[in-house]
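Protein modeling request. Please complete all fields; requests missing the sequence field cannot be processed.
Requester role: graduate student
Desired output: 3D structure, token encoding
Chains: 1
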Amino acid sequence: MAGNISNSTAPISSSLSKLQSLNGLFAIYKKQGPTSADVLNALKEALLREAGVENPNPRKRRKQSLKMGHGGTLDSAASGVLVVGVGNGTKMLTTMLTGSKKYVAVGELGKATDTLDATGSVTLEKDFKHITRLDIEEKLKSFTGDIMQVPPLYSALKKDGQRLSVLLKQGHSVEAKPARPVTVYNLTLQEFKPPLFTLDIECGGGFYVRSLVDDLGKALSSCAHVKDLIRTKQGQFTLEEHTLHEEQWTLGDILRSLQSCSESEQRVDCTTPAEADS
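Delivered output (278 residues):
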């Protein structure tokens, strides 16, 4: 009997050990609905179950837990690339927060919401029939380059250790954070079918697409909110080439897509030599 127990637990122990020895970065696809933290916990749970851990609780710090984090929160209503660091790769996540990101955003003119996206309550309605494609393209120029931006009240930013969005939902009064410098590398209008418009955005860290769309609506003498948002690139990871969908959240798929970092590289960057030169 003892021999049977040993034989059955050995593969589990081996799989878990291999899982916990992972070091590097990879990207997963975050769907609309769950928070980025929820998605990360679901990923951990799937991997622990595959390793044979019974009733895994990814939120508890236990011996079997995985050292894992994500490099930049996506709103629950947004989808797209979510970069994950595992093991020593978590040390590289700050480069994902500050590095270049690309988004495709669909905005809706004529309605403003308290969250600046479609999940919120409508707070204002204004006419938008005077707005032309040329008007939008002209106004976008003022939002390109190094600009100052006020973050949304409903955000992951914190006050006294608590997220502003949580404080607002609890009924607390929250003051807007001061405007801060952000960088927009590229900003183009892809489509305009009133009241909807589609923007292609490349920006640096700390930039909020919701604030951009809200500010753009005001600049056009109307109002607007984000109807749909997809992150298509984060750092070197792209939506088309690198993201693992839920059915690919396995040790084998992660091993095939993992971009590992040596101990010496972890303090600098985790890019491949070709990408580092570009």
